[in-house]
Amino acid sequence: MSQNDRSGRRPSRPRPSGARTAGGSSASRPRKADGDRPRRPRQANPRPDQRVQPERQARPDRAERRARPERRVPPEQARPERQARSRLAAGADEETTGPEGIRINKALSAAGIGSRRAVEELMRAGRVAVDGEVVREMGRRVDLTRDRVEVDGSRVVLDQRLRYWMLNKPLGVVSTADDPQGRPTVVEMVPDEPRVYPVGRLDRDSEGLVLLTNDGELANRVTHPRYGVEKRYLAEVERLPASAVARMQQGVELEDGPARAERARVVAGSGRRRMIEVVMVEGRKREVRRMLEVVGAPVRRLVRTAIGPLRLRGLAPGEYRALRPDEVRSLYRAAGL
Fold first, then answer.
1. Could you list the residue range(s) of the whole structural domain that residue 168 is in?
2. 203 flagged as catalytic
C-alpha cells in the first residue's frame, strides 16, 4: 500500500481539459495563436521637449485692436427686418409680382406691418393709401421704389435696398465715412454693404446715438434744423452757474454765430458736478460743448441719448442694430415725410 493509501486520502485523478476551477475560471483554456489577434504596439510617452504644441493664431497688434473697436451685435439685431427682406425676396413669384409691381398686401407684410390677412383687414377698413388715394382693392400692385404707401397716414418704406442702423458710438471714433488720419469711423462698425453714411455729427470725444442710412431724403430731413427733428444730449459738467440753463435757452453767441437750446434742465448731480439735459434741433461742430463752456459749465462727458423718437436703449458702446419698421415710420413722421 502506498503512502497516500495509508493516510486515508483518495488518489487524485487527472483533471480533464477545459474543466473549471473552484474560482469559476478555466484551468487550462486554449490560447489563440499570436497571429490570430494583432497586438497593439506600445507607444512611449514623448519627452516634454518632443511634444507637439497646438498652433496658436497670431494675435493682432494692441495698437491695431485699439484703433478698430470690436463690432458687437446684440442678439435681437435686425431680426424683423431681415426676415421681412427674406420673405420679400423668396416670394417673387408670378402670383404676387410682375412687370407692374408687387401686390400691396405682400409688400406691406414684408415691410413688417403684419400678416397678409392683417393687411387685408387694414385695407378693408380704409387705412391704407397709395399716393394719397385710399386703396381697398386687394390685387393692387405698387412700385417699391416710386409709390408712396401710407398706413394710418404714416409712410411705409417698401424699398428693401434701404438700410437704417442705430449705433452706440464709443469714445475715439469719428462720425465720418472716411478719415484721412486713419482713425476708426462709425461706418467701419456696421455692415459694409450696402454703403451707408452717418446722419449728422457727433465729435470724437462724445458718445452715444448715431444713425446711419443710405436714405438720403430722410438723412437731409433729420439733420436740417428747418424740419425741427430734436437731438437730446446728457452732459456731465464740472460746475453749473445758476444762470447757465436760462442763458442756453435764451441763446448765446458763438464764434460761428448764435446758438440756442430748445430746452435745458438739470437732471442730477451732487457737489459741484451736475448732469444737464440739452435738447437741440441743429448740430454744428461741437455746438453743445461750446455753448456749455460759454455759460461757465465745462463738459466732462457728453452722450447723445436720442434722435427724434429714437432712444438709445439696450446697446453697449460699439454695438449696433437695425431699426424696426415701426421706428422707421416714427422717424419719417418726425421728419415730416
1. 164-225+311-334
2. yes
